[in-house]
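Hi,

I'm pasting everything inline rather than attaching a file, because the server keeps stripping attachments. The sequence lines come first, and each chain or strand is labelled.
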Amino acid sequence: MSHDTLAPTAPPRSSSPMLRVADAVAARREAAMGAFRSRWGGLPKPARYVPGALLLLVLVLLPVWDKSLRASTGSGIPVIGTPNTSFSGVLFLVGAFALCAIGLNVVVGFAGLLDLGYVGFYAVGAYTVSVFGSPSSDLATAYPWLICVPIGIAIAMVFGVVLGGPTLRLRGDYLAIVTLGFGEIVRLTAVNSAPLGQRSGISNIPKPPGERADGSKLFGVVDITPFYWLILAFIILILVLVSNLERSRVGRAWLAIREDEDAAELMGVPTFKFKLWAFAIGAAVGGISGGIFASRQGFINPDTFDVLTSILFLAAVVIGGSGNKFGVILGAVIVVYVPERLRGFDESLFGAWFVVLFIALGVTLISRRKSLLSSTVRAAATFAGGILGLVVAVSVGTQLHSIVTDVGTENPTRLLVGAVVLTLIVGLVLLQLIGLAQAEGARIAKIFVGAFLTVLVGAIAPYVFDEIGDGVQALRYFAFGIALIVMSVFRPQGLLPNRRRATELADRKKEVAAGVNA
Amino acid sequence: MNFSALIDNFGQLTATGFTQGAIYALIALGYTLVYGVLRLINFAHSEVFVTGSFAAILTTRLLGVGADEAIPGTAIVIAVLFAAVLAAMAASGATALIVERVAYRPLRKRNAPPLVFLISAIGASIAISEAFGVFYSRDNVPVGNLIEPATQFTLFGASITNRMILIVVAAFGMMILLDTIINRTRLGRGIRAVAMDPDAAALMGVNKDRVIAWTFVLGGLMAGVAAVLYNLNIGVTKFNAGFLLGLKAFTAAVLGGIGNLRGALLGGLLLGLVENWGQAVIGSEWRDVIAFVFLILVLMFRPTGLLGESLGRARA
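And the predicted assembly:
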């Protein structure tokens, strides 16, 4: 099965002594990971909660820290803070996306159903809360938030069943296009029907109850932190529920359906029923997220719920690692936070961001490290090309910079950062080209030129973008698109892939080796 | 519900729907070809189309025609259109080839799961359309008027303009050409072979990678022609114009049975007609909803489309 490239396989036999060293390194790394995992599993249960609890504490305190820093120094948390947008607002949005990613993961990651219209459920949740809760909607029931959200969840679930009922007999790509159509139908219905406010949307959406000591509303408009905590609480709640589901009969049924639907059906799994359940549960989670999102916004309109959002949800799931609930949260962080961070772009941090980006890329490439030692000649060619590219880039870049700005500014920090970036780029190019070069010999010149060009472009980019200013912000979705491709090519299994199947496969192999099954 | 509008204007609605549908069908061919061979939604095909659209506009502008001026003589219009079509086909074909090289081939080599192909395709799609948005313009780009619509004759109460005739004839011409290529040439035989069974085809000496690249290029060429026709029909384009159109074209491909060339034709025409008839009945703002509801209804009763999916088995 192509699903897990992670499953430990026998290292390929190789003639080159270098390759054998690389295999040994890889094997030792695998063994170290295995040892770590078994020691981790041996710890008492409370001890295993400690890192998670610490992480949670950090997540809870992040907006508070940012706020106090802003009050004292005027700027938020260095490097990770968002200068031009409210940090707690961004955190909330990440949370809303993470919740959606968890819900979509039930459909895509667990049950293996491709849903491109998940935003439809998000929209249904948001619109239900708005229509029932807002005094200015046509219904004008103005129910309090605590009543609206359960209604939103219920209606989202109903929509899940309504969509799933007729369409779940379709498979694969047909299901994908039908769900995509569903998402558009929901949005266009909101655009066109008067009770849903058409293009102008619905305002005066109720907020959760609660007051501060001074009598002001706890869930206000200015400080988004309470909303962030609320969505964090929901994420934890849903995570617990989904984890339990995953380990239950339902979860095993989903697994079976994902792996082989026909076989599952033959073994007596009522596939249609469980697929419908996956749809309904996913829809309900999307509905919750949408409901909270609507009340945080205070007003909604159809533009929020376009197909791009749907695709971003799916991107979060796949980037993070489809089927791994923590992975998809990481995916949501990447999908929402990175473009938001690039929005308020401070040029002095550009280099820092390049570093982060390339470290992330480097990490995704680690799994291919084996081929690094396959040929010293190739490495030398790449290195030479990279160095030459670096020299040319820096000289051209400084020229460019001074020409455009008229001031011969030399920022030592930027140069340092640039050097780090370039080293990483060289490494990246090295890995990439060596991976791509298959035939011996003739590729060396190609590698040299490739390294030279990549380093040149990578190193000149900061100088050029520095002048464009808003360029980075304008380019953020462009960069996101490129990142998606790079991600798919280099780490198709996602950043945090689903471990469960890998371990299952390893166990089975062990059993076979021990003659249990033989 | 306004059935009298439908009945009164049935002829005209059918004519416009048919024109629109011909363009859908031409784009749908790109989806269907790639799906037939790789079993993969080429999500970036809509951007292949957009590239063609922009290439056509730039060509006409470079030739100094169509920008709010009087319409030049027929000979010049034909020459310019011809140049625009060539430019659009070249641009679209090249884009399709690059997308295949950059976003799909590395994944194929790694045997990635299908979902990852989709994500990579979405990435390519976002990157290309954003590139036009950032580096060219985020606003509507006027195409420039090349052909003043003039009614040529009336058929069942529908006035048929020269534009409609041109679009339908060009679209059908391209489809016949493609059908001939797939069914009669050596390349077409290779494409059908790979669609039927990639591994067996490779064993029989078909160069799989080259056939796949050519499949993308063929789809891109069709999209290039479709882009020029779309420009003529709508008169304006935008960096993200491909999205909805691509969605519709894909819907058309699925309607007819994806992977099936004649299915794409049938699906495209049907979608154009249903959309136009439907919008007369319940209002033009529901046009896109009609298309998707129609798709869901058809798939409920024909889960593999109207003609079924078979590029490999399509034997005319």
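The domain at 3-301 of chain B is CATH 1.10.3470 (ABC transporter involved in vitamin B12 uptake, BtuC).

If the labels don't parse on your end, tell me and I'll reformat.
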